[in-house]
Amino acid sequence: MQLKKIIGSFLVATTLSLPAFAQQATQGGQPDQVSQLAQMVGLSDDQQEEIRGIVDEMQGEIGELRQEAQSLQQDLQGEIKADYDEDAIRDTAEELGNVTGEIAALSALMQAKVDSVFTKEQRDELDRRMEQMQKQRQMMQQQQRQMMQQQGQGQQAQ
Question: In which residue ranges is the amino acid composition biased (Low complexity) (predicted)?
Fold first, then answer.
């Protein structure tokens, strides 16, 4: 279950940022996330190609649905006015919910397809690395909270 969350986080990040990473990679910038994942868990060239194929295939459809969801959200915001139409609001909200549900379903399918590419050893390594990163993130957040508390106490003393 933990692995599903990790892969899900990776894929959400990939889904959101893949166009930017692809642009960077083609412009000689940093390697894309699939390459970073390959270095992290030792993906073969075939595995990388398969994951890129999955992401590319699903990315287009998810991207179109995201644009549709954004448009529906704008339509919904446009319905917020003094002389509102409750039926129009409910219809648009329902359609937005359907589109958002489809995005979630496609994202889960993409996660499952990518998960099927990893070997057990790669899944274990990814799990270990993500757990490490999560601990580091938690430590940083705790340090930030402590710094904010100290700053708050310093301002109160003045």
Answer: 135-158
Give a three-class secondary structure readout of 28-42: CCCCCHHHHHHHHHC
Structural domain boundaries, residue 133:
2-157
Sign of CA dihedral 115, 117, 122, 125: negative
Domains contained in the chain, number: 1
pTM of the model: 0.64
Residue keyed to tokens 């690395």: 129
- To the nearest whole percent, how much of the chain has pLDDT over 90? 65
Token code pair at residue 148: 């904010």
- Mark residue 44 as left, alpha or beta (left: phi above 0; alpha: psi -120 to 50; beta: remaining): beta
pLDDT tens figures, 116-145? 999 999 999 989 998 999 999 999 999 999
